[in-house]
Amino acid sequence: MYKKGEVSYQPLPLPDRVQKPDVEALEAVQGFRDYMRKRHSVRDYSDRPVPKEIITTCIEAAATAPSGANHQPWHFVAISNPEMKATIREAAEEEERGFYGGGGGDEWLAALEPIGTGVEKPHLTKAPWLIVVFAQRFGLTEDGERYKNYYVPESVGIATGMLITAIHQAGLVCLEHTPNPMKFLPDMCGRPSHEKAVMILPVGWPAEEATVPAVAKRKKPLDVVMSTFD
Questions:
Q1: Which of 25, 29, 152, 190 has the smallest CB count inside 10 Å?
Q2: Cα separation of 115 and 215, whole Å?
């Protein structure tokens, strides 16, 4: 992380080595690929509580993500407080009423039709936890001096992806909700005004009757998403 006055490069021998022979490496990544194929964005949550330690450990994993200049321009707020979750849901549904009332435009609304989304967001109160991901536009030193963060969207995106992966590793499910704009979130969550909420993840166990949109199982084939030059 950024620390004022540290401006010189000091190499450190690679502290951890997890490399494998080629065969083992292929088997490992194939197993990981197959497990990740079982990850689903879920809107239907069980009442079963999730221990705080599981959520904390998922966030710890996400916080190991690489970032521009290692500034780590993110902050995660984990919320189980029912009143806070209700406030967030109310604001989200107010935004969605405008969006689905025509603000989103015909093309966007048509694209969302197969996903089955709508104004009502019960998952924001039903899920035992909400994790709000904040992006830091700039950082502050311990004495309040402002410094620049680099590649903030990319860095926070990587960390969020790792958080979603960690949640799946725990056997939990989540749903990616983008607040727009929900400007009250920094104040509500005790965060400074230069931080912007970029993602809300309801997290919990899937309900017994949980469903996913059939269209969500359609993934682009490998030859569409990958090119190689041997």
A1: 190
A2: 7
Helices and strands (H and E) in the chain: how many: 8, 6
Tokens of 182: 């929900």
Q: How far is CA 9 from CA 6, 69, 70, 146, in A?
A: 9, 12, 13, 22
Quote the pTM value.
Answer: 0.97
25 membership: H or E segment, kind and range: helix 22-36
Domain coordinates in residue numbering, the chain: 42-209
DSSP at 103: I
What are 133's two structure tokens? 């991901």
Please state, in angstroms and rounded to a whole number, the distance separating the CA atoms of residues 204 and 55.
Answer: 9
pLDDT digits (tens, 9 = 90+) for 42-69: 999 999 999 999 999 999 999 999 999 9
Distance CA 3, CA 147 (A): 10
The encoded tokens of residue 45 equal 């949550």
